[in-house]
Amino acid sequence: MCDVKQGKPESSIETLAVHAARPTERGDGDVTPAIHVSTTYERDADGAYSRGFNYVRDGNPNRGALERGVAALEGAAAGVAFSSGSAATLALFQIAASRGRIVATDSCYHGTLRQLRDLVPTLGGEVRLVDTTSVAEVEAAVDADVALLFIETPSNPLLGISDLAALARIADRQGAVLAVDNTFATPILQQPIQHGARLVVHSSTKYIGGHSDVMGGLLVGIDTDWLDSAARLRSAAGAAPSPFDCWLLQRSLPTLPLRVRRQSDGALEIAEFLNGHVSVERVHYPGLRSHPGHEVAGRQMVGFGGMISFQLRGGREAAMQAAARVELFTRATSLGGVESLIEHRASIEGPGTRTPENLLRLSVGLESPVELIADLDLALRQAR
Ligand SMILES: *Cc1c(COP(=O)(O)O)cnc(C)c1O
Question: I want to staple 115 with a disulfide (CB 3.0 to 4.6 A). Which of 119, 207, 249, 348 is the partner?
Fold first, then answer.
């Protein structure tokens, strides 16, 4: 785990993002960080490790730089990087299971839901799933035996919005920790710690990486006790990211503000277009006034993100046809890359999914929104 060297309070997120990717050592005058591939580190004559590293699973300069960078962007004290977002959430749930009960959202990334339903109970964890878009439901579920309140906002794939400040107050009152999966928003659009969360999780495979070419996860926060446990668990369980993967993620940080704002602006235009389309039954996008979480999202986000889901009038068949006809969108799962993706979500999530069969999910990339809209318009006309 790496602590953040506190940036100057006036540092903007753009400056922080660029500086997060600068080399920490500049012995050779490097402007871009070097990749440290060594798996093992030399001991001092007296047996100490005065230079801070001993073995790659426990620590590496590229990993430390990435952890400090993302923690700085989230306004966190420290971070722990994992080999995937799933490794980060499972570490969080494993630590929680040893401390008390878990109350978690019933609407989130399907892999996270699978961990909460199937995996965490086998590790001795007691999980209760609730609709966290309802403050009253969370209030009723969180008591003094709860160690962790886990939410994802906006949530995958229905873009549900949970009220960060209200849920943080409930967690605080009961001595529980609020942890937020901030993958969809990124620290550019939403900083959960500012609203009272103590831990933030990322699948850095998505927007943080941003180029669909690297897998990773991070847990950052202000609760150093949980973060110390997470770093120890990572060392023991071995879900550590490679130096090259950390370097790729660190390389992506300077462009994160530009990419995410542009993707979010494009998504708002596309959501407004879809909202008025005759072939579309319903659009799920928190930037639309009709979205049930619009007002809460407006309070806690500075943009509504690059992800949209929408349901078609013609059922599953119309959804599959529209996805087959687009040309600028690539039919693929995942999200957050520079290229726009379209996905029939229910068939990826598989049996037992509650995702509607007529739903398509869009990850809006960096192409011209006008051209993306024209592409969708043509595909939707033909699908009618
Ligand atoms: C993809 C994703 C995850 C899982 O991350 P991986 O890097 O694929 O393991 C967790 N949460 C959300 C919101 C995601 O989109």
Answer: 119
Rounded to whole angstroms, the maximal C-alpha distance in the chain is: 76
Same domain, 265 and 363: yes
pLDDT at residue 300 greater than cutoff 80: yes
Enter the DSSP assignment of 117: I
Q: How confident is the model at residue 351 (pLDDT cuts 50, 70, 90)?
A: confident
CATH number where 242 lies: 3.40.640.10
In contact, 177 and 171? CB cutoff 8 Å: yes
Ligand 1 contacts CB of residue 84 (under 6 A): yes
- Is the Cβ–Cβ distance between 195 and 161 less than 8 Å? no
Q: Which residues contact 207 (CB under 8 A, 6 or more apart)?
A: 183, 184, 186, 256, 259, 260, 263, 306, 335, 336
Domain limits at 270? 256-382
Protein residue with its CA nearest to atom 8 in ligand 1: 85
pLDDT, tens digit, 9 for 90 and up, residues 123-154:
999 999 999 999 999 999 999 999 999 999 99
pLDDT (0 to 100) of residue 7: 47
Q: Is residue 91 part of a domain?
A: yes
* pLDDT the model gives residue 1: 58
CA neighbor of 65 nearest in space, from 248, 204, 255: 248
Task: Map tokens 């024209």 to a residue.
Answer: 374
User: Which pLDDT score, from 0 to 100, does residue 8 have?
Assistant: 54
SS3 104: strand
> Is 228 part of any domain?
yes
